[in-house]
Amino acid sequence: MADDFVSIPDRQIRSSPSAGKQGGRASHRLRGLAREASWWLMLQRPLRHTFQTHPDLVVLPNDAAFPYDHIVRMLHGRDIPFLLMQEGIRFSLPADKEQDAYGRGGAAAIAAWGESSAAYFRAQGAPPETIHCTGSPRFDHICQTDWQPQAEQLRATYGFGKTNLLFLSNPIDDQGFCTTAEKMALVHRFLVEITPLFADPGFHLIIKLHARESLSAFQAIAAATSYPQRITVLGQSPLYPLFTVAQAAVVLASTVGLEALVFGLPLAVLEIPGVGFVHDYVSGGVALGLYSQRPLAPQVQALLSGQGVDTAVTIAYLQNNLATRTDAAEQVARVITTLTR
Questions:
Q1: Strand order in the sheet with 163-168
Q2: Are 193 and 220 in contact (CB under 8 A)?
Q3: pLDDT digits 0-9 by tens, 202-220
Q4: How many helices (H) and strands (E) does the chain have?
Q5: Is 337 helix (H, G, I), strand (E, B) or coil?
Q6: Between β-strands 267-270 and 248-251, what pairing exists: parallel, antiparallel or unpaired?
Q7: Reported confidence tier of residue 18, pLDDT bands at 50, 70, 90
Q8: Which one, of 261, 262, 263, lies nearest residue 243 by Cα?
Q9: Could you give phi then psi for residue 140, rounded to 5 degrees?
Q10: What's the pLDDT tens digit per position in 229-273?
Q11: Is 267 helix (H, G, I), strand (E, B) or coil?
Q12: How does the average pLDDT of the chain come out, rounded?
């Protein structure tokens, strides 16, 4: 195997996996034109130059979303094999049908997080012998790091209470589940309806945003509540120490739900109106569903008290989703070594 490893490209080239419902057909056409322009003007030439060296293997996190779909075609044209490393939990996005093609790009091998993902890739048509349950190096890092010192620093900086609820937002509007206005209305309703929980002087709400979300927009909603001093909205703050600070977590549609379970937190999923609960956290029995047509305060109180948490079910779920949480990097390295031998 070659000793040289080259990371390409050296900057973020995919800002969003999908355009979102609010874009409409015109927005999708413009996005398509922008993608093609960026490919031909910015990406195609340096990638072509890199692949002229004919590397033994290319490792990709995606084989369907732009620009990885273009990269895959380029690799196939040069007979260069690639390893697909799973980048997150899998669920269909209503605004981006290309995501449904994830795993169908003809990878020489697929590094799946666990058996649940392996089943997904088999259903996509990937030959079973190419699928390897390696775990995820990200979760190795999570489980092997002491997050307590950073957690205490955050607690001192922001004055978190004894009971901290962590609301983990993500761009469900970009994913196509709703418009941005609908998402912000959902968040506003959540903040208003859990007002009774602030009667506990130790209760604190921490809202952690995705990098593509507007910090000022969320701060404005928090400032309009009855207890703005006990709501902290964080943008670029580190995520994992917050799991150590929190007593429970609420998610919308993201891999952070799996991360919360790894940290041992009671988990809930906020129902998206007209969509329901995204992914299998609720149906899999590892998360409470926060139903939009019911008062949210008692549902969140049940979450904080640990109601509905079944340790055995959660352990089985994690084992099915993560083949290992100790040596995933080594497992992936073995696959790479085999492919390049």
A1: 231-234, 203-208, 163-168, 248-251, 267-270, 288-290
A2: no
A3: 999 999 999 999 999 999 9
A4: 13, 10
A5: helix
A6: parallel
A7: very low
A8: 263
A9: -55, -50
A10: 999 999 989 999 999 999 999 999 999 999 999 999 999 999 999
A11: strand
A12: 91
Amino acid in position 16? S
The model's pTM: 0.90
Tokens of 310: 């079944």
Q: What is the β-pairing status of strands 163-168 and 131-133?
A: unpaired
For residue 43, the 8-state DSSP code is I
Question: Rounded to an integer, what distance in angstroms lies between the CA atom of residue 152 and that of residue 212?
Answer: 27
Q: Which of 308, 295, 302, 309 is nearest to 194 (CA)?
A: 295
Q: Is pLDDT of 148 > 90?
A: yes
- pLDDT, residue 10, reads 52
Strands (E), the chain: 58-60, 82-85, 109-112, 131-133, 163-168, 203-208, 231-234, 248-251, 267-270, 288-290
- Pick the closest to residue 83 from 117, 51, 122, 109 (CA basis): 109
> DSSP string of 80-126?
--EEEE--S-----TT-GGGGGTT-S--SEEEESSHHHHHHHHHTT-
